[in-house]
Design brief:
two-stranded antiparallel sheet, alpha+beta, single chain, 13% strand
């Protein structure tokens, strides 16, 4: 199954505890224009689904975001 195009950039961002955002916050900062306003929900759903598959594989785990919600970080296993 294909992964979201934002998986690796998201994991690169959340590797730093100061920029450990939820997928929705990350996309809100990243997307612009129609991608943000018309398709933002679709991008978020695809990103979260991809991250959940990686959690099931053991290559990603959950952590606290900077605002106390759920973020995803790479575990280092590949």
């Amino acid at each position: 199954m294909r992964q979201s195009q934002y998986v690796q950039p998201y994991l690169d961002t959340t590797a730093n505890p100061k920029t450990r955002y939820t997928p929705g916050t990350y996309l809100a900062y990243t997307l612009r224009g129609a991608a943000k306003h018309q398709y933002g929900g679709d991008y978020k759903r695809a990103l979260v689904n991809s991250l959940m598959r990686l959690v099931a594989d053991g290559t990603v785990t959950t952590a606290r975001s900077v605002h106390g919600y759920t973020a995803f970080i790479a575990t280092g296993k590949e």
